[in-house]
Write a structure and sequence with these properties.
disordered C terminus; transmembrane helix; Growth Hormone, Chain: A; MFS_trans_sf; 16 helices; Drug resistance transporter, EmrB/QacA subfamily
Amino acid sequence: MDIRLSTATGRWLIFTTVLGSSMALLDSTVVNVALPRIGADLHAELGALQWIANAYTVTLAGLILLGGSLGDRYGRRRVFVIGVVWFALGSLLCGLAPNAGILIFARALQGIGGALLTPGSLAIIQASFHPDDRSKAVGMWSGFGGIGAAIGPFLGGWLVDGPGWRWVFLINLPLAAVCVPVAMRHVPETKDPEHHGRFDVAGAALGALALALLAYSLIAKNLWAGALGVVGAMSFVFLEKRRRDPMLPLSIFSSRQFTAVNLVTLCVYAALGGFFFLSTLQLQVVSGYSPLQAGTALLPTTVLLLLFSPRSGQLADRIGPRIPLTVGPLLCAAGLLLMLRVGRQAVYVTDVLPAVVVLGAGLVTLIAPLTSTVLSSVETAKAGLASGVNNAAARAAGLIAVAALPLLTGMGPAAYRSATQFDQSFDKAMPLCAGIMVAGALVACLGVRSPSPAEVPRECAEPECRFSCGISAPPLEHVKAAPPDKTP
């Protein structure tokens, strides 16, 4: 395809992919703001709120690699449109849910839709535009997506305060109603003619099941579920090792640099997942903020990412990844510790803003270098897989953190209804999150290297997404998939 950005088709293509990907991006940022109102309306305990946040992540993290492969094989536009429709139907069920159980089920359905549409949006752009316009098109898509991420918490808070929390989900219906017909009319269909057409459905399902069982064991304090989750995880590794065409070729971890960066990713996004889940509750339950105030309170973090991520990536290119990936988590840890100032009647300018700015500075320092290091640690043929693994690892880490932190800090089922109890648990959680960030910094310092030119693969990919504004996971790059792994 050689679509030019200056044409009407090019502009429609950008509009459609931004609109579709924004649905999933908004959902990952606005739901936390609505959790206290959802709990009060549906008479849900804290465990149900954890699952409302996590059910979406379980299916998204478990199936996102499979979703990218389906688009390459059957058509990126087709799978993207199916994902948008699926996501919208899941959103409708979320908005109409009469109880927490139905809402959790609907959130899992949303995650399946997200796994289908999220990889496709960038893949469509990269496969459709003329090479001379591709970089600019990706930059526009990434930049507009960053703006969507910035307004997401504000929009979520406004919806919860206004028409109600159900509209946090129902807002996706008009977006999908616009996105689907525009995609069918203006987005060309593209496929990967070299895709082998075999899919590791069993591996994807087993990975998602293992994540779900591990999360359930932590939320419900069920040892049997934890044991089954461990068995499921071990079975997933065994299956991927034995399959001819695995979803996750384990040989990719033969790169020490790739393995170290993914360990850093696990630490960073585990801490972030716990922070964003608990902080929106803290601001509303303890500090007395409205949903709108709580949603906008964390906005500086995303704004800083939007403004300075490209420069951070350029700096890392000059000095190497070790220093940014070490300093960044340490700055984030300092920001998390500053959140201990956020208690009853917290003043935004003196109590919340300093913590959010320091946290944002840490994320600016580390996220862009993290993405570029993941891509440069493998050859170009495996860059798409490497990015997908890194994205899925981040989401899985956040999921486990949301499940584990309430258990580790002694939160009871009704803790979020008591300002005193929740404040005490929050004060225990932030040092834990900061400690996980410090662990990530240590891994980076000891395990991440700034390789010499001779050690860099002769052909390695450069990141396309320079505006790294998603705080739920690193940017998902789509680069030509690896050929089937034939390693015995």
